[in-house]
Amino acid sequence: MTDTRPAPLTGLKVVEISAFVAAPLGAMTLAQLGADVIRIDPIGGNIDANRWPISDDGTSIYWASLNKGKRSVTLDLKSEEGQKIATQLIAEAGTLVTNLPARGWLSYENLVQHREDLVMLRLGGWHDGSPAVDYTVNAASGFPIITGDDDRPVNNTLPAWDVAAGLYIANGIMAAELDRRASGKGQEITLALSDVMLATVGNLGYIAEVQATGNTRGALGNGLYGAYGQSFECADGRQVMVAVISNKHWRGLGKATGLSEKLEMIGPLLDVDLNTEGGRFEAREAIDAVVRPWFAAHTLAEAVAALKDAGVLVGGFQTFEELVTSDPRCSTENPMLTEIDQPGVGRVLAPRVPLQFSGSPVANATPAPALGGDAAEVLESELGLTADARDQLGSAGVVHLGK
């Protein structure tokens, strides 16, 4: 018998008032798990409404990608009436995600007067309350110093701390919702982007490493710290990444390349144990020198096939274009991805949440709303406002009704 339970967060209502990456990603994750998420923006959109990349007609692909499956309302949030409507929507939903300063009407102290069991999560920059974005937080993390081949700091183009913060936001809301169901009480949750970075640096051992050993890691290029991993150029000019973690991988590298005997000679020569990750790391330059000519004599496809057959972890480097146009893992062959018609953008592949539930499956991805396009529906369904009342608010410039 097929299990037809609804998506895990069906019934949860969330209001989001935010911009950029982390908070929208967190709220979208909740939406893709079944929550009803209403994003509220100022009329005309928040600071991220037109952020690059943009489509040919000027639609922000960035905004559309981070707001799939939500409903959108735009209000004059500088007016008392706009703030009142936003407050009513927050009180009706009972859950708020924001990265705006929690002061005035948007403070927890004010909002909890309208919903006693309110759950509110606010994302900030630094722990002391000063502002920050992913790139400025990353600059302090230590990672840019060990990225690349020298001591010149290189900021990662992936907004890692925003992405991690977005997933912490989703976890925080779900944890508070479980607590509210058990206790009947809401709470305010605060999260600093810098603490996401520090928690990750600590959890990966970088803080303890400095304190315990007095040492810090240097730049390794595409090398793998503490084990053997390296990138190589193949005969066709393509680059491949190889990772050797286990002894099985190590034996596979020798088998695939036909260089087992030469590789085994490295251990006695350098007095290292090649049956350990640390030993292979210490001997990395010698291993590179032995296997590099093999890669130079084989195309990327040949190298990947041989290494995979031998059980070695391997992956070819590719551009975003190659990923989208040539990699079947980034296609509808992958059930996580669905083709959607995104207004202003066109027909595109869109991911649902990458979790797979056997008993309460989540829906496929749905398009992001038009900015403010759900105002009439939301004001009616959530606040019970009549058409006349909605029109009056629209005429007064309090809400954009999309007419």
Automatic annotation (TrEMBL):
Protein keywords: Isomerase
One of the Pfam families matching this protein, by short name: CoA_transf_3
Classification via InterPro entries: CoA-transferase_III, CoA-Trfase_fam_III, CoA-Trfase_III_dom3_sf, CoA-Trfase_III_dom_1_sf
Enzyme class per UniProt: isomerase
Gene3D superfamilies reported for this sequence: Crotonobetainyl-coa:carnitine coa-transferase, domain 1 (3.40.50.10540), formyl-coa transferase, domain 3 (3.30.1540.10)
GO molecular function: isomerase activity
Record carries keyword Translocase: no
EC number: 5.4.1.3
Protein origin, superkingdom: Bacteria
Coiled coil residues, start to end: none
Entry protein name: 2-methylfumaryl-CoA isomerase
Lineage summary: Bacteria, Bacillati, Actinomycetota, Actinomycetes, Micrococcales
